[in-house]
Amino acid sequence: MPLIDYIPAQTNIHFMRLRHWTFPFSAALSIVACLLFAIHGFNLGIDFKGGTLIEAQTSQQQADIGALREHLTDLDVGDVQIQEFGSPRDVLIRIGAFGTTDEAQQAILAKVQGVLGTDYSVRRVETVGPSVSGELVRQSILALVLGAVAVLGYLWFRFEWQFAVGAIVTTMHDIFVTLMIYSAFGIDFDLTSIAAILTIMGYSLNDTVVVYDRIREMLRRYKKLPLPELLDIAVNATFSRTIIVSTTTFFATLALYFFGGEVLRGFSLAMTVGVVIGTYSTIFVAAPILIHLGLRASTVSLPTKDAADPEVKELDELVKLEAKDAAAGVPPEAAPATGVSAGGGSNKGGKGKNGKPNGKAGPARPAKA
């Protein structure tokens, strides 16, 4: 047992009741994301639109960005963007694709290095030709599409179709919100961003599959338990695991954001936002959407029941209590607060051998949503 129990192992939160607020919130986020994509677009990096990127550092205390911009504009080398990069001594120069050949880009690079002279030391140079950038765009789109199709196929084979559709909707929700961050803040969208999106897709699916596996296991055994109440118990059973894993990943990506340097700033920001929104969607989108997709216990095949499993015994006790209350005509709200907690643990009241209460009264079962 841990000395300090920050996150209770057994929670009793009525998540399904909140779906009437979380669904409109998620829909609004997705609509805002689509509007930003259409109006503001993305700040595509040189990987996707071609050009030259030069990172330079001055020997002075601070780089004179205004003078650099004036000299480079006089060269007539096309679209030039200059910005401070990290410390005041560092500058990042972006030159759009100018010409149709790689030789033209090399000529532009030589002119820029001539303007920088001896006052600046060139620390990094990246050049992407027009033909290479077009190929990278096609390959990135193909990677995202094939990844989504492979996930859909696996989930359809592994779970019932309701779970597959729910996982895809949840994953698309997470991707849209992450892309909204890129569009809203003008973060460079390049191959590193594609890697961040694919990583978030895998992370979100991992959390969703863990919850779905518990839901399917309970549906196989307890066919008469109302679906909202069953979903509440399943989400609460995996809640501590979800929060602990997400918190650990969040602090790791946050450290990468602050200490990883400017090159990884966009990637780490996307990962940080993706972890938060992925945890939210696992709890408040992935599970409640199964109610609206018409999931029923009859759609899940029966496995062999392991009677030795302590969680099976505890949940069996919950089902028996529900059946007893229904037979006696007791409404769910008036049922005694004895039985199984949301996390699947059993808290039994009663008296000890000396006739005194043992002090183990359990919390009330999740009410029907």
From TrEMBL:
Species in which this protein is naturally found: Xanthobacter flavus
Protein name: Protein-export membrane protein SecF
Gene3D superfamilies: Multidrug efflux transporter AcrB transmembrane domain
Keyword Manganese: no
Residue segments, region Disordered: 326-369
Bias kind Low complexity: ranges: 326-337, 355-369
GO biological process: intracellular protein transmembrane transport; protein targeting; protein transport by the Sec complex
Subcellular location: Cell membrane
Pfam families: Sec_GG (PF07549), SecD_SecF_C (PF02355)
Family: Belongs to the SecD/SecF family. SecF subfamily.
